[in-house]
Amino acid sequence: MSLQLLTDRMKFAFFIKSLVFPGGGAERVFCGVVNGLSDRGHDCVVVTFDDGQEEFFYQLHSSIEIERLSASTPGRSTPRRNLPRIMKSTRKIAQRYKPDAAVAFMHSTYVPVAFAFAGTGVPLVVSEHTSAAHYSGRPLQRRLARVAQQMAYAKTVVSTQVYEEHPKSWRKNLHVLANPVDLTEYAAAQRNFPSDGLILCLGGLRPEKDQLTLISAFDRVASEFPEWRLRLVGDGTERPAIEARIAQSQYRSRIELPGVIRDVAGEYAKASIVAMPSRYESLGLVAIEAMASGRPVVGFADCAGAATLIQHGVNGLLAEAGVDRARSLAESLRTLMADRGLCIAMGMRAPPTIQHYSIDAIVGQWEGLLLAAATSRANVPALDGRKNELVGKPEGHGG
After folding, report:
1. Which class for 115: exposed (0-12), middle (13-18), buried (19 or more C-beta within 10 A)?
2. Which region, left, alpha or beta, applies to residue 119 given φ > 0 means left and ψ of -120 to 50 means alpha?
C-alpha cells in the first residue's frame, strides 16, 4: 500500500443497530472509531436502526452524516419482519453514498448488512464484539455470523483470545482490532486514590455481566469491612432481578444502583476497586478504562475479556470460577479490601499495561484495514490467510 494512499480522503459507511440505548461499551467504541477517522480527514456516514426522535447517548462529530432506518427499538431484538426493509434501505444507502468501504458492528447488525451489500462491490468489514460463549446454544446465530464473515472483506474481533476461539478454517480474513480508549480522559484519577472504600461495577445489567454474583460476593465480606460500599452503574434487562436481590441483602443500604451515568471517568475516580464479574466478555472496555484511571480490577480467570487484561497480582486479581463463583470472587475482593496499600500499588502499575489500547493507535489500525479494503473494491476475503497482515495485533497479546 502506497504512502500516498494512506493520506487520501476516503468515504466510509458505518452501521450499528442503535446509538440511543444508554451505556453500551461497543457503542462507545463505535463512536470513538468513527470520530477518530473523521478527525483524520475521512468522510463518514453513520447508519442506525433507530428512529429519528431520540438523542444518541454518545456524541458524534457534527461533520458526520447520520441516517436512521426507524426499524428497531433500543434494547430489544429487531423484529424479523423488519429485516427485509432494513436490507432494502441499507442497499439504497450503499448505492447513494457509494462508500469506499463499510463497517457493521455486532452480529445483530452485520448479518443483515452483509446480505444487503452482496453484489454492490463495496467491501464490508464485519466487527464482532462478543465471544464464542455467546453463540453457545444459538446455532442459527452462529451460522449466520459465519456466512456474513464469508461474504465480507474482513471480520474483526477485539482480542487474540477471541481470535483463537474461531476454527482455523475461519481465520483467513480475521483480524484483531482491540477496543480503543482515550487514555487521557481517565489519567486525572491516577493522581488521587480515594480514602473511602468503594467497589465499582460498571456495565449493562444483563445476565452475562453477572452482577448477581458480585452482590453475593459483597454479602460475604461486607461485615468485615463496614466502611465499604458496592456501586452498580448501568441499566438493562436484569434490573428487576438485581433490585430484588439487593432487597434481600442485609447490607442493602450499602449497595447503590444509580442507573446509567455519562461521566464514567468520574465514577472510576471515586472507586478503590473495579469489579468485572462477567461470565463472558470479548474484551473488557471497563477494565481498560479502570486501569487507565489507576484502579485495580478483579475478574474471573475463565472470562476471556478479563483474562486478556488482568495480570494477576500486577494490575488486579483473577478469581478462579470453580464451583462457587461468589465465594471465589469474595476472596479476591477481601484480599484488596484488607490492604489499601496493595490497591494503590496495583493501581499504579495498571496504566502502563494498557497503553497499546490508546484511541490513536487503534484508529490507525482501523484506518489501515479500511484503506486496504477500499483498494480491493471486492467483497471477498483478500489477505492471503495471514493473521493481521496489515493492521497487526495489539502489542502485548500472545497467540
Report:
1. middle
2. left
Give the DSSP H/E element, type plus range, for residue 198.
strand 197-202
| 81-111 residue pLDDT tens | 888 999 999 999 999 999 999 999 999 899 9
C-alpha 186: how far from chain center = 17
Task: Kindly state the cell numbers that stand for 186.
Answer: 481517565
Q: How far apart are CA 93 and CA 99, in angstroms?
A: 9
Question: How would residue 226 be classed by pLDDT, with cut points 50, 70 and 90?
Answer: very high
Q: How far apart are CA 57 and CA 28, in angstroms?
A: 9
Contact 230, 199 (CB under 8 A): yes
Element (H, E) at 276: strand 273-276
379, amino acid identity: N
Q: Which H/E stretch holds residue 255? A: strand 255-259
- Provide the whole-model pTM: 0.78
Taking only Cα atoms into account, the Rg of the chain, rounded to an integer number of angstroms, comes to: 21
pLDDT band at 75 (very low <50, low <70, confident <90, very high): low
Q: Band of the pLDDT at 1, cuts 50, 70, 90?
A: very low
H/E run at residue 38 = helix 25-39
Contact 376, 382 (CB under 8 A): yes
Instruction: List, as own/partner pairs, every contact residues 242-250 make where C-beta atoms lie below 8 angstroms and the sequence separation is at least 24, other chains included.
Output: 242/205, 242/211, 242/212, 242/215, 245/212, 245/215, 245/216, 246/215, 249/215, 249/218, 249/219, 250/219
Secondary structure class of 169 (helix, strand, coil): helix
Domain ranges of the chain: 3-180+358-376, 183-355
Q: Which CATH superfamily is domain 3-180+358-376 in?
A: Glycogen Phosphorylase B; (3.40.50.2000)
Q: Is the dihedral of CA 296, 300, 301, 306 positive or negative?
A: negative
Q: Which CATH architecture has domain 183-355?
A: 3-Layer(aba) Sandwich (3.40)
Q: Do domains 3-180+358-376 and 183-355 have the same CATH topology?
A: yes
Whole-number Å distance between alpha carbons of 187 and 278: 25
